[in-house]
Amino acid sequence: PLGRAVGNAVEIREAVATLRGDGPADLTELAVASAAHLVALCDGAAPAEARSRVEDALGNGGALAVYERWVRAQGGDPDEDALPRAAVVRELNASRDGAVVRLGALAVGMASVHLGAGRVVKDEEIDHAVGIVCRAKRGDRVTTGDVLAEVHARDDASAEDALAELEAAYELADEAPPTGGVILETLA
Fold first, then answer.
1. Which residues lie below 8 Å from residue 30, measured CB to CB, with a gap of 6+?
2. Fewer CB within 10 Å of terminal CB in the chain, N or C?
3. Residue 124: pLDDT over 90
4. Residue 177: C-alpha distances to residues 103, 144, 188 (Å)
5. Angstrom distance (rounded) from CA 6 to CA 108
6. CA distance 121 to 118
């Protein structure tokens, strides 16, 4: 998964952290590269200048201020405390020392759907408080007991089910896999 969060409120918290300059490296890199590309296309700025402008907006609080202004303009409250919180938060811990060699994005996504963060059919209601936060991702080294992921659930039963799904989504091995960049190619 891109970033660490899957689910409405947990994703918004992660987006706000990214706007503050504290987001996950992969999400931050993609967001900065995408925004810089748009600045270059819209303003005719050179790629390095466009990237610098985007990084400055993150560093000086300008990006966060724009987010807050957008939310208020739509009648919302940009304060993170206004976001719903799940009644139950459980952790998935590493069963051994090693490195995360696989984290199945589809399995994580389906676990979040089963929590109520997404829909199987169009008319299903979404629970905005529930979701998953992947604390360890592909390439991360962990020791026994480290938190791999957090499940934010409405009740104990759905939390336990999601933990089982998440455990199957993680594969640990002795050696870390090779790392690669977030962006494979830019089209346009």
1. 2, 182, 183
2. C
3. yes
4. 12, 19, 31
5. 8
6. 9
Spell 8-40 as b/e; 16+ CB within 10 A means b.
bbbbbbbbbbbbeeebbebbbebbbbebbbebb
Of 24, 55, 23, 26, the residue nearest 39 (C-alpha): 55
**pLDDT above 80: residue 14:** yes
User: Which letter does DSSP use for residue 80 in this model?
Assistant: G
Q: What kind and span of H or E run contains 173?
A: strand 170-173
Residue 1 has pLDDT above 90, yes or no: no
Q: Are residues 129 and 86 in contact, defined by beta-carbon separation less than 8 angstroms?
A: yes
H/E stretch holding 6 reads: strand 5-6
d(CA 83, CA 166): 24
Q: Quick one: which of 172, 170, 180 has its CA closest to 149?
A: 170
HSE value, Cβ hemisphere, 13 Å, CA-based, for 62: 8
In which residue are the tokens 């759905």 written?
A: 158
Residue type, 12: I
| Whole-structure pTM value | 0.92
β-bridge pairing 131-134 and 5-6 = antiparallel
